[in-house]
Structure formats: C-alpha cells, structure tokens
C-alpha cells in the first residue's frame, strides 16, 4: 500500500498547539491541538493501526472504545443498524426502564426526550424521517431554493462595499442561521439568541473531552440552563403556531397527522424535532462552506474553472466535503456481537468511534485521496453524512445551501484569495473548521436578475 502524500498541504497544517505526529505512537486524535494534524494522523493510522482500542472508554463501565478509520469498516457499521445499534437506542431503553420503574430521570435534552415516544426503534426512526423531516430538510429541501438564494444575496449585499471580509462572520456562519430561522419560522431578529442556544447545544462536540465528548459537571449544568431557555422559547412558538399556523416547518409539525403513530405530535415532540434541526443544521454547514473557501484559495485555477462551468459546482461541493469532512468523527454505535475489523477483534458491547474524516481519505478507497478531483468516480459515496438508514437527515438542505451559496458567490465576487492575518487555527472539538477566515474578494457585483421572472 502506498503512503498518501500531502499534495496540497494548506497553511492550516503549519501552526500547531500539538506536535505533528511522525509515527503512529505519536497520534492522539483527541488531544489539545490535535485538529491541526488530523490528516497527518490519518495517514499514519491507515498505514500502521487502522483500528485503535481506547481502554475504558466504552459506553458502559468495563467496556472499551474502538476508533475505526477505514472506509470499508465504517461503511459496514453504518449500513447495518441491527448488528451495530446506535448508542442512542441504549439511552432510550434506559430512559424507558427508569420511567417504568418510577425512577427520577436524569436531565436530558428535548431531542432525546422526544425520541422516547417518537422514534425509539428502527421502524419509527424511518417513519420519522420519511414523514417529518424529509419534506423539509431531505429530498423536499428544494422548496427552500428562493429563500436560500435571498439569504445568500442579502449577506453579500452587506459586505458589498468591502474588499476584505471574514468569510465566517460575514457569510458561512450567518447563512445556515438565517436558513434555519426562516425554515422553522423564527424571526431573523432572534438569530443572535438562537446562535447562543445553538452553541449550548453543540458544547459537548466543541469542549467535550475524549472521543465521548464528555463535559464537566459545571459545563453540563451551564449547558442545561441555556437549553432550558431554548425549550421555553420553542414552546412559546409551538403554542402560537398551533393556534395560528404560518407557512413554516414548526407550524406544519403542529398540524401534521403523523401516520406512523396515527396521531398529531405533542408540543414536546415538536420541540425535539426543532432541537435536532438546530443542532444538526448550523455549524456543520458553516464549516463545509469555510473549508471549501480555503480549498478555493489553495487552488487558484479553481475559481475561474467553476465560473466558466457552474455544472462543476456540485462536484466541487462533494469533493470539498470529502477532503475536509465537517463532522470528523462520532462515537455513535455499539457492536452487538464480537466483530473483527482489520484483523482486530472488537468485543461485543464496545463503543465505536466512526472516523468519517479518515474514511473519506482512505487510500484503499480513494485514488490520490488528498487531491481535489472533480471527475472522481461516484464521488458522493463519501461518508461525510454517514450512510445507510441513519444517514444525516439534513444532507439535502445542506447540499442545497452549499450549491446555491457557491453559485451566487461565484456570480457576484470577482475572486477569493487569503488576506493577511489568518492564523488558520482550528476550533477545538470534533468539527473541522477555523475560527476566522480573512479573504480578499475584490469588488462585488449586484445580484443577477432573472429576466424570466
Ligand atoms: C455539511 C453538513 C452536515 C454534515 C457533515 C452532517 C453530518 C452528520 C453525520 C455524520 C451524522 C451521523 C449519522 C449517523 O449516525 O450515521 C448526522 C446526523 C444528523 N444530522 Fe447531519 N450533517 C450536516 C448537516 C445537517 C443539517 C443541515 C441538519 C438539519 C437540518 C442535520 C441534522 C442531523 C440530525 C438531526 C442527525 C441525527 C440523526 C439521528 O437521529 O440519528 N445535519 N449528520
């Protein structure tokens, strides 16, 4: 097996809080500053240790965690939910048992609380997706095209008189925030507050320790205090929209007859669906846009290529996400039986950390894995959104947002280059993204008017 080379090593790999690993024993994917060298680590792991045992860090006392980095292993896990049930199922079973036994429930978020009734098993999970989220953020997401275009254009208008922008603050962060607020039916004026609650939701994925993203007790307490405010805010909107529905997702959820359970949704259940949309829909797409912008700066010929042939934008979006997976890894599955991965026996009951970011540059799956290749065969087979029956339900709207954003940015901006002052340091946690991205964009043009409308 040939070792992949870092053919277009970007500047974000030069600065580091942690030393760059040179051999597999140096690798620690979860240490402080590890984000700066994840891709060097993946090359070492693929070559020498594609399955790593994480002693004592399973889901239950006395069990271990296992880090999987190979495409074939992760694909096998996510496509077989019977042999590799989601960790959340265990949590739901524990909640159901505690309720039956009349025990006091631990503090849980609205999403988990709603899952107990709404989607506790595979069949109901499927119905939940097909009936409740697909029409809004899955295959039905195209209904939001005009709204997303309007959000993207308004953001560009705001920085039209500047030649240097912080791409994150000016575009990549607010775009998914505006899209989610409009889709759910929250006023755009509430975005700063919604963003604060969104930060609380993802706190474990940013500040949590180890592969299980564990927050300290004090951090968890602060998180739940914030999330309580969010729950009340959503509840207020649910009550109002139930009484007087508008054209938005929350209104629709309050009215829909959920066929799988042959009834309407309760307020708590609507709250849970909204929670899932916010936790899944903000930072993920933000980082996808931000990393794609870096790739455009790293490949100076790409801008004009995409401008000349916008049909390539779709492939660019997929390749950019494959190369820089926003969700690098999640510890979401438990193996029911003993399993063998790459010759390593993983005992039943272990917690599997699925390293999507590594699978997406696995040299046994991808030729020249670190190269951007817009003509790659079947390039959507990447595991950026996972795969199988639990694949990310919001992939449709995220892809749409990214495709429309790049089409409009390419139309309205003359170009995109790094401006001076970038540190390229990544945010901590399990997502791949920088905290700021200063870009030179030149002179912005007006939105293109569609004369057919
Ligand atoms: C580039 C953007 C995104 C990436 C990389 C991403 C990635 C992922 C991944 C890897 C999973 C885990 C799937 C599994 O367990 O097999 C997931 C789950 C999920 N995503 Fe996304 N996602 C993105 C955007 C979105 C958006 C826009 C939404 C909402 C509108 C969303 C909502 C969710 C939800 C609710 C789940 C949990 C599903 C469950 O209950 O199992 N995601 N996502």
Topology, element by element:
Elements (H helix, E strand, L loop, with lengths): L37 H11 L2 E4 L10 E4 L2 H8 L8 H14 L9 H9 L3 H16 L7 H14 L5 E3 H6 L1 H11 L6 H11 L1 H5 L9 H27 L5 H7 L1 E2 L4 E2 L2 H15 L1 H16 L3 H7 L4 H11 L6 E5 L4 E3 L2 E3 L4 E4 L1 H4 L35 H18 L4 E2 L19 E3 L13
Parallel strand pairs: 2-9
Antiparallel strand pairs: 1-2, 3-11, 4-5, 6-9, 7-8, 10-11
Bound molecules: protoporphyrin IX containing FE.
Description:
By secondary structure, the chain is α+β, with helices and mostly antiparallel strands. It has a single domain (11-440), classed as Cytochrome P450 (Cytochrome p450, Orthogonal Bundle). Helix content is 46%, strand content 8%. The strands form four sheets. Strands 1-2-9-6 form a four-stranded mixed sheet, with helices on one face. The protein has a three-stranded antiparallel sheet with strand order 3-11-10. Helix 6 packs across helix 18 (395-412), helix 9 (191-201) packs across helix 11 and helix 11 crosses helix 12. The longest helix has 27 residues, at 217-243. It is globular and about 65 Å long. 40% of the residues are buried.
Characteristic key phrases:
single chain; globular; disordered N terminus; four-stranded mixed beta sheet; 11 strands; 8% strand; Cytochrome p450; alpha+beta; binds protoporphyrin IX containing FE; 453 residues
